[in-house]
Amino acid sequence: MLLVDDHPLFLDGVRAALAGEDDIEVVGEAHDVATAVALAGDLRPDVVLMDLNLPDGSGADATREVVATSPTTRILFITMSADDEAVVAAMRSGARGFFVKGGGRDDLLQAVRTVASGGAVFSPAVADRLGAWFTGMAAQPGRESFPQVTEREREVLDLVARGYDNRRIAKALFLSDKTVRNHISTILTKLGAADRAEAVQRARRAGMGALDKGTSVS
């Protein structure tokens, strides 16, 4: 098992929780995306315990790279966040489970073993949020108006229409700034929009970009 987290005290706690388990061996630790991807490629662990937020990027980005280079490695996210965007980012990247920090030792051990054996695991709160998110997908604004746009691009376009700048979009969707820029460029091309402002107008006409309370658009 590979542990990926940038908080030494948390890693100490995980190591202590796993200590003495004959069927679980920690083969390495990483504190950032680059190291995690490199170690996963070299060690090919059965399971990676992956933090969602790392100093040089998101755990979701790291997961996509790990899964691409080591398809047999299974990813279990451990994070403080249980919001909808975090859950969806984890699933879209190829994760097999989502465990919220603060759970008990027995629950963690069960989650690791379940994922290692090929299963998927979610806390009750995460499972409820995930189910609600997928239930709402069919009614998502813009699905019929922009069939050429992918689900991820639609998520980006919706936030653009809310008035989010690229950095805020990246934070909300756990993406890099570069990835957001690439998505926006592709969206403009697919929509045939001359610029960001035109894309916003078209998205809002399609019902996208409902503003959060307190959100202002400059």
From TrEMBL:
<dbReference type="Pfam" id="PF00072">
    <property type="entry name" value="Response_reg"/>
</dbReference>
<dbReference type="GO" id="GO:0000160">
    <property type="term" value="P:phosphorelay signal transduction system"/>
</dbReference>
<keyword id="KW-0238">DNA-binding</keyword>
<dbReference type="InterPro" id="IPR016032">
    <property type="entry name" value="Sig_transdc_resp-reg_C-effctor"/>
</dbReference>
<dbReference type="InterPro" id="IPR001789">
    <property type="entry name" value="Sig_transdc_resp-reg_receiver"/>
</dbReference>
<dbReference type="InterPro" id="IPR000792">
    <property type="entry name" value="Tscrpt_reg_LuxR_C"/>
</dbReference>
<dbReference type="InterPro" id="IPR039420">
    <property type="entry name" value="WalR-like"/>
</dbReference>
<keyword id="KW-0597">Phosphoprotein</keyword>
<dbReference type="GO" id="GO:0003677">
    <property type="term" value="F:DNA binding"/>
</dbReference>
<feature type="domain" description="Response regulatory">
    <location>
        <begin position="1"/>
        <end position="116"/>
    </location>
</feature>
<dbReference type="InterPro" id="IPR011006">
    <property type="entry name" value="CheY-like_superfamily"/>
</dbReference>
<dbReference type="GO" id="GO:0006355">
    <property type="term" value="P:regulation of DNA-templated transcription"/>
</dbReference>
<feature type="modified residue" description="4-aspartylphosphate">
    <location>
        <position position="51"/>
    </location>
</feature>
<protein>
    <submittedName>
        <fullName>LuxR family transcriptional regulator</fullName>
    </submittedName>
</protein>
<dbReference type="Pfam" id="PF00196">
    <property type="entry name" value="GerE"/>
</dbReference>
<dbReference type="InterPro" id="IPR058245">
    <property type="entry name" value="NreC/VraR/RcsB-like_REC"/>
</dbReference>
<feature type="domain" description="HTH luxR-type">
    <location>
        <begin position="142"/>
        <end position="207"/>
    </location>
</feature>
